């Protein structure tokens, strides 16, 4: 008989009989449901993030400059329009201003109104140099719409945090499911594990077998959950994007990267949880 | 070589009573030894200490040159691979075929499939089960199952072969066939210890004997 070579990992097709002991129905279905929730949570987090970014970019780029009524607002608007980073600097017509003020002031044609210049900056514009120019204008006041946008941003951040918390809960529930499934597998194959152990199988070899099977089941379930999530997310995007972003939804609006990552993450959680559960149990032998 | 020095064993669930106590003996390399005694004398517990599925509560157990109490946990699998074990209730894996059951120790050791096949076929031929290689263990008779368990225990050429009542569930003809195979392993150089409550087999196959009663060694020779 041949000499025994250096010890290597346990081989063989399925010495623990895990394909039967860890059946491929209930756990993937539950993990699939978890993955669907995770997909919705991820979409929520990403959507809130994109909304916050858009609001921030919009807010930082939209300015309203108020000038004294006797200022040469047209010349100032032209000067500001030529600054690098300025997309547009337009004088708000006096007639439009009077229309806006009418609900509060009534028809008062002789009342002098300040001159207003509506400015749009590029999102990447250097606002510091712009502000320096504005500060030199006598009597000028700049309105950045900051307060309202900050509140909206905080709302978006809260939504993002809730989505992340939901993802964490889904992950923990998933890990708990894998722990229960692993313990059930251990109970079903206790005798087999003991025999392999007594034949000289290493704890890591046995744990790896379980971990691989659980990772496989979790990946299958998460893939199913991700597939089911696609139409749900599409329906959501189709309704939300026209309202929020003022355009039609496209396939590129779906979080494909996150959806593709779900089976991998689920497999990772399944592998690690099963591995730890097995190692803890085997330590007691 | 196996050496027990003042070995005692208490099961945690045994209420503090000693299942084994004061065991002092040595098995020489390449020896064949009967382990005798009535049911409940502690034979299985002693063999479990020997094949490392239990740790002694007292004294020192040395197996194949390793002091078990001082051996780190990570070193146990390598030592277990040098010990073959046969149980009265066979302990075969029902979801594996005859061939795969016999191949298990070699697969655990990572032997390549190409080399493993020849060794397993050779051992199945030796125990008379080559024709049943693809069968499920549940379709084998008791004697065949015990011979399959024996083939699994010896396929990796262990230095120590521990058999716990291997003939307990067999008729006389099958029991003699199993004992003949165990003696064949001894002839090939393996240290063999066989527990039995039979008074007939040690007379038919004379060899050194340890006799246990109530967890104590009452004779050695």
Present the secondary structure layout.
The complex is a heterodimer of chains A (285) and B (221).
Chain A (H helix, E strand, L loop, with lengths): L17 H4 L4 H36 E6 L5 H9 L4 E7 L1 H12 L9 E7 L5 H9 L5 E3 L2 H43 L1 H9 L4 H42 L11 H28 L2
Antiparallel strand pairs in A: 1-3, 1-4, 2-3
Chain B lengths: L1 E9 L7 E10 L4 E5 L6 H8 L7 E6 L2 E2 L8 H5 L2 E4 L11 H11 L4 H14 L15 H13 L5 E5 L7 H16 L3 E6 L4 H4 L3 E6 L2 E5 L1
Parallel strand pairs in B: 3-8, 3-9, 6-7, 7-8
Antiparallel strand pairs in B: 1-2, 1-4, 4-5, 9-10
Helix pairs in contact in B: 3-4, 3-5, 5-6
What does this structure look like?
The complex is a heterodimer of chains A (285) and B (221). Helix content of chain A is 67%, strand content 8%. Chain A is α+β, with helices and mostly antiparallel strands and 285 residues long. Chain A folds into two domains: 18-56 and 149-283, no CATH class; 69-139, no CATH class. A four-stranded antiparallel sheet of chain A has the order 2-3-1-4. In chain A, α2 (26-61) runs antiparallel to α6 and α2 packs across α8. The radius of gyration of chain A is 31 Å and the shape is rod-shaped. Chain B is of the alpha/beta class and 221 residues long. Chain B has a single domain (27-54, 77-220), classed as Rossmann fold. In chain B, 32% of the residues lie in helices and 26% in strands. In chain B, the strands form two sheets. Chain B has a six-stranded mixed sheet, with helices on both faces. Chain B has a four-stranded antiparallel sheet with strand order 2-1-4-5, covered by helices on one side. The radius of gyration of chain B is 17 Å and the shape is globular. The mean pLDDT of chain B is 91. Classes of the chains: A alpha+beta (285), B alpha/beta (221). The interface between A and B is medium-sized, with 27 and 30 residues.
